């Protein structure tokens, strides 16, 4: 098994629930009661991968970030994202914005931007 193309060997997130993700109003007065989602970038291709390949040693690598992206958005839509009016984006890869912006605006799921994204 390879560290690349799989989440099986990922370590737990050390900062979950801290800083801007904290639910404590005293520690995070601006965002304590917002819905928060953290998705690790696992395919190295801004959640656009849709292929399989083999490393030189024969290990199969899966680049299925697009499927992960779609599953995350579908799950969030079922849980109320379709009613959202704003999305605060943080961390990661701004290329994701440009790769996934062609669909309806609420399908946008991105990281890094330091400003609000209007969903409607």
TrEMBL record:
Its EC number is 3.1.1.-. It comes from Triticum turgidum subsp. durum. It is found in: Secreted, Cell wall. Its main location: secreted. Belongs to the pectinacetylesterase family. InterPro entries: PAE/NOTUM. One of its GO terms (biological process) is cell wall organization. It comes from the Eukaryota. Hydrolyzes acetyl esters in homogalacturonan regions of pectin. In type I primary cell wall, galacturonic acid residues of pectin can be acetylated at the O-2 and O-3 positions. Decreasing the degree of acetylation of pectin gels in vitro alters their physical properties. Transmembrane segments: none annotated. This is Pectin acetylesterase. Keywords: Cell wall, Cell wall biogenesis/degradation, Hydrolase, Secreted. PANTHER family: NOTUM-RELATED, PECTIN ACETYLESTERASE. One of its GO terms (molecular function) is hydrolase activity.
